[in-house]
Task: inverse folding
């Protein structure tokens, strides 16, 4: 693709995303007055301007990997629990993280070689790899959805990362692009469970400009790199509105799912993987405080971390939630 064409396409995607976000704000009255979690940090580094995915490192203490949304460069960033950049040790002689330093440049993150950020929306991890979901698809036009598999690097020693695999994915139910029907093939929530990757969809009406309740749970069963991996529909939930993130607890017993206005906790199904139909609790969130929430991860089996596009980090404990009537 010629640089001018790629740049033009990125501008179009950015404008479409803005239109969708504005329309959503206008067409939905978010319920304020729900649970307001504690803001524990704010990310201030300029390159981290629209966080869409986050995952806790399984190898390095106090380390969280984050990515930016569509239109950004193919980079990952490492931050600590205070929201501060983690920079390779020897790069600190020439780069700064948050506050400007004379003679130094702003740290721009770790390049992810052999990848492209068309619309990165979520992250997850298993014992061996980190995964980045390039599955943002607001208007259901895309035919190039996929998931990148990365080996986790040491953020204090390495200066770049690389995609080991790119797993193209598609929805068997989607026959037209974008099609005249409802837009149910956008996913901003990726999680790992039982050695499998799962995606939860975010639904829009036929115009593509208005959110509607509903979410489908898909499972990735194959790992082809040269052709599409057809996702398997395993469950659905008609009550969830605008799901933007999900992650399974370290003990594998509770799936946390975040939307613009609520936090859902699903207990492990007694059998199978119909997570969205299992016993659950829904907690209304105070959107005046959280604004546009994008990610949810488990810090441990009893603590959740949330982030929003405004770059705030929030902490919620299960003890706090137990005092609330879902």
Result:
């Amino acid at each position: 693709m010629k640089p001018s064409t790629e740049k033009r396409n990125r501008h179009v995607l950015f404008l479409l995303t803005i239109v969708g976000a504005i329309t959503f704000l206008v067409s939905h009255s978010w319920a304020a007055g729900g649970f307001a979690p504690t803001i524990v940090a704010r990310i201030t580094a300029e390159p981290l301007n629209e966080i869409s995915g986050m995952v806790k490192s399984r190898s390095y203490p106090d380390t969280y990997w984050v990515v930016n949304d569509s239109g950004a460069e193919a980079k990952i960033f490492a931050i600590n629990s205070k929201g501060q950049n983690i920079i390779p040790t020897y790069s600190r002689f020439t780069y700064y993280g948050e506050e400007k330093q004379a003679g130094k440049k702003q740290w721009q993150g770790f390049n992810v070689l052999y990848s492209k950020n068309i619309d990165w929306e979520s992250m997850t991890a298993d014992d061996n790899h980190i995964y980045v979901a390039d599955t943002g698809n607001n208007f259901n036009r895309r035919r190039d959805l996929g998931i990148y598999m990365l080996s986790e690097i040491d953020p204090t020693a390495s200066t770049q990362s690389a995609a080991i695999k790119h797993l193209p994915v598609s929805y068997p139910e989607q026959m037209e692009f974008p099609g005249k029907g409802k837009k149910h093939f956008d996913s901003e929530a990726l999680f790992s469970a039982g050695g499998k990757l799962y995606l939860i969809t975010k639904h829009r009406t036929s115009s593509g400009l208005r959110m509607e309740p509903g979410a489908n749970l898909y499972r990735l069963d194959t790992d082809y790199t040269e052709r599409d991996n057809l996702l398997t529909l395993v469950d659905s939930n008609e009550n969830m509105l605008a799901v933007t993130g999900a992650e399974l607890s370290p003990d594998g017993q509770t799936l946390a799912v975040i939307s613009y206005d609520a936090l859902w906790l699903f207990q492990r199904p007694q059998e199978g993987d119909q997570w969205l139909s299992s016993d659950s609790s829904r907690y209304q969130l105070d959107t005046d405080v959280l604004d546009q929430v994008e990610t949810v991860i488990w810090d441990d089996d009893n603590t959740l971390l949330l982030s929003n596009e405004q770059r705030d980090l929030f902490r919620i404990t299960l003890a706090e939630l137990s005092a609330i009537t879902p």
Notes: The first strand starts at residue 38 and ends at 42. The domain at 3-322 is CATH 2.120.10 (Neuraminidase). The chain has one domain: 3-322.
